[in-house]
Amino acid sequence: MEHIGQKIKDLRKKAEMTQDRLADYLGVSAQAVSKWELGQTAPDLSLIAPLCRVLGVTADELLGLNEQDKETEALIEELRAYRPGNITREMAERFPELEQRAAAHPIDLRLTYEVAAAEYHIPGTMDRKKESGVLADVEKRCHAVIERTADPSLRDDALYLLAEMLILTGRREEAKQYAEAHSSEDTRARLILRCLEGEEWLNCQQRLVYGSLNHFLNMLVQRIDHLPTLEMIENVIKTMFPDGNYLGYYPRLIMGSLWQARSLVREGEYDRAVEKLRAFVSYARDYEKLYGKSGHLSYTSPALDHWGENAEALIRANGGPFHAGEYARQWFTLPDLKPLRERDDFKALCAELEEEGTSAGP
Fold first, then answer.
1. Domain boundary assignment for the chain
2. CB-based contact 83:121 (threshold 8 Å)
3. CA–CA separation, 49 vs 63, rounded Å?
């Protein structure tokens, strides 16, 4: 009431209008106008529109909503600076003042979240924060946002902050519930991983690595005509599996070598092209050996030694038994490889395949 009364007074004086004159315009007593301006009472809602017309302002201006919005936005920006590595001693000392200012806007859930985030990130041990009630405050504010906001992004922010706090305080089972409610698949997976321990953590971590690696390679493989990208695919796989146990990644290495050879032929680098075809055959031979196996095949790379492939699934994925020589024979007839067919090194490679009982040739 004090705010609108002061606003009426300021606007009335700006318009060089007396209380009596304003009262006449509105059909109320001068005493009523005086009480508004003193903050003792407030105008009836039915008088807001006439007041705006007489004083030449909008309802938002009269009620001070614009000023409140600006103050709220400024406060939010100030609180957003309270992030790890950015909080000075002076900022920490000033936080109670910002918290008090935010309390004047209890319905703005953005402020509720920013206060929680700032309070959580102000430096201090978890034990000290717990003893001082800081963690309880943060948890309460996060719950308020999660339960009341209609903004999915703001809800996700609160879920993440709450899950992170619970993880760091050892309440992993509770944290997992909030992690699972996050809308981002990637963030959800990373948070859930942090909630796990021991063998369960390792299995989940390698599952995520496996999925991320496949997604990354699938994005790269869209450029089968771009030699640097093809080389990158091969280098990534070799780095991830330094022991050479490629299992389900053989098809990418096999076809990647062939695509590299085709690109090198187009660039006139025939020596390198034949080297890549030798790599193509070598990968294909190793892959063929998998078809004599059954059941679960385990990777042995440290990055994925808790993950593996199903031998039968590999066979089905490639349409049945795989014969390296026959496979090479089919691809060696590509028109792109025609410039290599009269070269001795290419003929020698074909001869090797024939000696192994295949009919591949130039």
1. 2-63, 67-195, 199-355
2. yes
3. 11
Report which secondary-structure segment, H or E, holds 56. none
Residue linked to tokens 């959580």: 120
Structure-block tokens of residue 202: 């390792």
Distance CA 225, CA 57 (A): 65
CB 303 within 8 A of CB 263: no
Q: What does each C-alpha distance from 166 to 84, 102, 203, 286, 312 come to in angstroms?
A: 17, 25, 22, 48, 43
State the pTM of this model.
Answer: 0.65
Q: Which two tokens stand for residue 25?
A: 């315009």
* Alpha carbon distance 69, 93 (integer Å): 25
pLDDT at 361: 40
Amino acid at 157: D
Lowest mean pLDDT among 48-57, 139-148, 174-183, 309-318: 309-318
**pLDDT at residue number 181:** 96
Q: Tell me: the pLDDT tens digits for 83-128?
A: 998 999 999 999 999 999 888 777 789 999 999 999 999 999 999 9
Distance, in Å, from the CA atom of 100 to the CA atom of 334, rounded to the nearest integer, reads 75
Judge: domain 2-63, CATH 2.170.130.10: no
Question: Which class for 190: exposed (0-12), middle (13-18), buried (19 or more C-beta within 10 A)?
Answer: middle
Structure tokens that stand for 267 in this block: 């660039």
Question: 310 near 294, Cβ under 8 Å?
Answer: no
Rounded CA separation 260/256 (Å) = 6
Q: How far apart are CA 147 and CA 129, in angstroms?
A: 24
User: Which residues are within 8 A (CB) of 207 and not within 5 positions of it... i.e. 6 or more apart?
Assistant: 307
Residue 258 has pLDDT above 60, yes or no: yes
Which residues face 297 on adjacent strands? 309
Euclidean distance between CA atoms 206 and 208, whole angstroms? 5
- Token digits of residue 65: 């909503």
**Whole-number average pLDDT of the chain:** 89
